[in-house]
Design a protein that fits this description.
Layout: H1 5-8, E1 9-10, H2 32-40, E2 42-45, H3 51-62, H4 80-86, H5 89-99, E3 103-109, E4 134-140, E5 151-153, E6 162-163, H6 165-169, H7 174-178, H8 182-185, H9 187-201, E7 206-208, E8 215-219, E9 224-226, E10 238-245, E11 255-257, E12 263-265
Parallel strand pairs: 3-12
Antiparallel strand pairs: 1-6, 2-8, 3-10, 4-8, 4-10, 5-7, 5-9, 11-12
Helix pairs in contact: 3-4
The structure holds 2-oxoglutaric acid and fe (ii) ion (FE2).
The site of 2-oxoglutaric acid has 10 residues, from strand 9.
């Protein structure tokens, strides 16, 4: 028998969560953006990114003849144009307002095609102490074609239970659970468990069919996926960046600040 979503997840203690995830917040204490985040688990910022930052990065990225992008998770360490976009100060201010502490960049996906990563929450791919002090950002560098496999999500699913890495691994053989590939091999039972939960709740799936410069920030617990393109290999010109609360990454002790004081993690490669 394959595990259910309930068997793969739990509800973390309220006091351990970022402020906007705690109940008992009054509307008049929150900005509009914060209310949207609290209610939906995402915010969409139309035409948010400045043209010069997008163009500089797109020009640099276009020199790389690889649809999947750089094959390291941290190309921002070498590519200054990517760092400038990922650490755009108004974006960082916005995330701080949503999570409640300064955020640190630690992962960028630079493919210009859909990842086709099926339903998941991002949080469980990280150590348990991250505990939703986390956000990811989808930045459209061009008009996104609906056939290119847009980002899909379920608004409000950030209040569903939280998938837990240790629970997922407990349903795997010891060899599989110890392998760095466990996130991939476990999709075979995690995705059906999430699909069953979506069905059971009658949840509505939405698509982010973005225009150039549109930006979507999502919660570490939001259910989402990179959908399968209707036209295989169709270009989807975007960049996706992931961040954690600066006080919740004791596993990433090497970090730097850019010229604007924004944080990014550094790794020995
Ligand atoms: O390809 C996509 O749009 C989704 C990528 C994703 O799930 C992620 O970056 O966490
Ligand atoms: Fe994801």
């Amino acid at each position: 028998m394959k595990p259910t979503f309930a068997e793969l997840s739990d509800q973390p203690a309220v006091a351990s969560l970022p402020p906007l995830d705690r109940p008992s917040l009054r509307d008049d204490e929150l900005s509009l953006l914060q209310r949207e985040w609290r209610d939906n688990g995402l915010v969409i910022l139309p035409r948010f990114l400045p043209d010069d930052l997008m163009s500089a990065y797109a020009k640099r990225r276009a020199k790389l003849d690889m649809p999947g992008g750089w094959n390291t998770p941290t190309p921002y360490m070498e590519i200054a144009e990517l760092r400038a976009l990922a650490l755009y100060p108004p974006l960082m201010t916005c995330m701080r307002e949503l999570i409640g502490e300064p955020m640190m960049l630690h992962l960028c996906l630079t493919g210009w095609v859909s990842t086709e990563r099926n339903w998941h929450q991002d949080d469980y791919l990280n150590p348990p102490h991250v505990n939703t002090w986390y956000a990811a950002v989808w930045m459209a560098l061009d008009e996104i074609h609906p056939d290119s496999g847009p980002f899909e999500y379920i608004a409000g699913s950030h209040r569903w239970p939280l998938l837990r890495g240790d629970k997922v691994r407990s349903f795997m053989s010891p060899a599989e659970a110890d392998s760095p590939h466990w996130p991939k091999t476990s999709e075979e039972f995690v995705v059906p468990a999430l699909e069953a939960e979506i069905h059971r709740r009658g949840a509505v799936v939405q698509k982010f069919v973005a225009r150039r410069g549109d930006t979507l920030i999502w919660h570490g617990r939001l259910l989402h996926r990179g959908s399968r393109p209707n036209v295989p290999g169709m270009m989807r010109k975007a960049v996706i960046c992931h961040y954690s609360g600066i006080g919740h990454r004791q596993d990433m002790p090497s970090r730097r600040q850019d010229q604007n004081g924004q944080w990014y993690a550094v790794f020995n490669q």
